[in-house]
């Protein structure tokens, strides 16, 4: 599989046998696609999370305390949906899928059908929640990338590496680090990451301990 803006087949032979070209490949539990986007992976994780919710539906919709049920959903269901979310590059359509999944969880938990015509705002009031799933992803990403930028490792070299050759002049694709919202660039983001206190103050107390 060749990952690029315009995927083209490549010819690789081993012992005179040509390797098969594929458009998607699952590696370490994550779905990689030849266009380099995360949409298929996100849809796959959401589908698995919904299946897990359905298996334990009686527990999540029981008469247990509301706060306890919310913790169970975030612990068991969100963990499945957000596996590997630290490396996702979220486009607008991906954010919409994730927010829809978040509301799906609360609606199923409270047994609210789409035929009841209950607005999302009303659902959030009933469960005493706000839209948090995108914030959770940003928090995880900040925690993970902070550790990477403070170390000298292969992953850091990959992030900072540059590919030789001519770059086609097209619309700029969104990058993974863009979700952290630092418009002053990678160098400024790296500078903040080197100071754990500044990093935690910037992205919240949940982005790793200060040691």
Q: How would you explain this protein's 3D organization?
A:
This is Reverse transcriptase domain-containing protein. It comes from Cryptotermes secundus. The protein has 211 residues and is mainly α. The chain folds into three domains: 36 residues, no CATH class; 94 residues, no CATH class; 66 residues, no CATH class. Helix content is 49%, strand content 6%. The strands form two sheets. Strands 1-2 form a two-stranded antiparallel sheet. The longest helix has 18 residues. The chain is globular. The model has no long low-confidence stretch (mean pLDDT 82).
Secondary structure layout:
Layout: E1 13-14, E2 17-18, E3 24-27, E4 30-33, H1 39-55, H2 57-60, H3 66-81, H4 92-109, H5 120-126, H6 133-149, H7 154-160, H8 186-194, H9 196-203
Antiparallel strand pairs: 1-2, 3-4
